[in-house]
Please model this.
Amino acid sequence: MEKYDVYGIGNALVDKEFEVDDQFFLDAGIEKGFMTLIDENKQQSLLELLIERYGLKKRAGGGSAANSMFALSQFGASVFYSCKVANDEAGHFYMKELGDHNIETNLGLERPDGVTGRCLVMVTPDAERTMLTSLGISETVSVDELHYEAVSQSRYVYVEGYLVTSESAKSAVLDLKRHAREAGVKFAMTFSDPAMVEYFRDGVNEFIGEGVDLLFCNEKEAMLWSGTDTLDAACEALKGKAKQFAITLGAKGAKLFDGERYMDVAPHHVRAIDSNGAGDMFSGAFLYGLSKGYDFETCGKIASLASSLVVSQFGPRLSPEQHREVLERLGL
Model:
């Protein structure tokens, strides 16, 4: 019996966002547009520099899969989320950010000592997000965080590509995928970031294995993974490993493949301020549509509108009212 629409697993991170200029990346030797893992001490030094130079714009609960689970829960889906946070101030803040949002988790009142993961999100005037992440205790996510009963009671399992950077998390994902297959639960994943495809290709391909039921990625990730230089060629390569997929194209909308045919999703033209969380929202909103039995085209419309609202503000998540607005505007 299905109790959950989606079971997700990912890195629990607290985001700190800053508005920066391109010169900052040159000064600090940071690769723009990518997520880069750094150690806690280096991150702290950069955090102090960012606060001094630009001032903190926003602090929010984050993590790719967590953002998607949040969106799912706010739209009205039933979800379970596995992650790991420490018994520190950031961990308490993270739990508060999940709050009363219909998100069941593996987290109890007793949490281990350590440091909760955090991510410095730097947004440039072109709305591009660049991230510096210190995983903290999330680096030790393992099979211990899995809840097999909840997996068996779900329609989809959803995995973020960022988990390929940790050996214990990678083992957990592979075990999770095996269990999902045995229980007849569909497996969905996102590439998460171009850096995962470019620098952790072997791990990403381990996640994919013989194939996945549903894959989310953006245009750059699709072409990096496939080693092609056109979207059409990338789509053909993806069809060999994903039964269905959705490729976000930024201001150009999205391209979907439902297993039989391609379809294009029209964009919503907005003034983009911050692209952080746009892909997470797209995945979450799309999975919500699937949970309600909508066809791919309708799911794409929900996802496109919701992600357009995310990029027109700071932070990776929408308010409860904005989730309702999306469905009302689409007459759903």
User: Anything to note?
Assistant: The mean pLDDT is 94.
